[in-house]
Structures are given as structure tokens and as C-alpha cells.
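note to self — DONT lose this again. spent like an hour looking for the file last time. sequence + predicted structure for the chain T wanted, 204 res
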Amino acid sequence: MGLNGFMSPWIAGATFTTSGLPISVMDGSSNTIYGRAFDMAGNMSACSSASIVYVDSSPVSLPPCDIVLSEDMTFKEFQLRLDSMQSDRTLYDADGAVVVCLQNGVTISTASSEQGNCISIPGNDFLLSAPSGTAYVRNSRTDANPSANQAQGGLYVTGKTNFSAYGLSIETQGTSGSGLTIENSTVPFLRNLHIQANAVSELP
């Protein structure tokens, strides 16, 4: 058996027909599962053309908010709030994580480089959440593209441990950028996210 074309440990047919094959998936994820087989000579088949789809519906238990933000902000203003929380981290991570909650309908936005290029998550063990609805991250920049090595778009996460997000609508409508960039990071869950890119002509 394989998950999205990647192989899981092999099991005997008899075991599969009784206890089945356990697989691990991300909470709330949709997973397409294929199969392969060995014949008696040890030859492996191609991945099956038929598949089944498993959608995980297990609930996510969100930790309590360390801070609740209820006002609209620019990217730059929001970045300053996140960076300030990171510098005073001991005030917020009593449970091992910094949990930033946005009230339903809050919009974090930029329309120019002066208002910010992207939102960079500043530390490990971070949860950005809109637990009571949906918060919006919108980049509608139409000014000149920044340099190629300057991250832009929506949320930017690189080299972090345990970044999660819940209840966000991330929209990029400017000339360049990606809605959500995650590199070399550990992600326990991404849940209830909507990511949309309009009129994007170049990705960094």
C-alpha cells in the first residue's frame, strides 16, 4: 500500500485482510491511497491505477489563546506584534507554545511595500488561529516587485519547529508572491485554510 504514491511498510495479504494496514495522516487531511504487490518471484507491480480517498475528520484540540487580536492591521503592524511577542516569549508560552488568536473577520493586509511584503513567523512552537471563524491575510500589492531574494506574499515559515495554522483565508492579488510558504519546518496541522492567488505572474 502507498499514500499519495509513497510506499508504506509491506504487509502480507493475510494480515491486510484481517487487521489491515495502519497509516499516519495529518489531522483534517485528504489522502489518496494506492496499492502495489509482490508476486511469488519477488517482482513488484506498478502503483495501482485505482485508488481510495481517505479524509481525516478527527477534531483538532486548539490550545487556549495567549493573545487575542481584534483589530485590522497592515502586514508591517502585525509583524511588529509577532516580533514583540517573540522577544517577550516567556510571557506567552507557559504551555510550550505561543498561540496568537485573531477574532472572526479580522483582516491583516498590505497594498504597498510600505505596508509590508509578507508575514514571517518569528519563532518555534507557534499557532496562528481564528478559532471562532475566519481571519483574512490579504496581499493586494500592485507596486514594483521587490528583489528576488525578498520573501513576499502571505505567510512565510522557514526553519521552524511546530508551526500550525487554523481558520485562515490567505489571498495574494499582487504582481508576485505565494500565499503560504513553508520550508524546512515541522507542521503539526494546517486546518480550515483557504489559499487563493490571483494575477500572480512570478513566484519567488
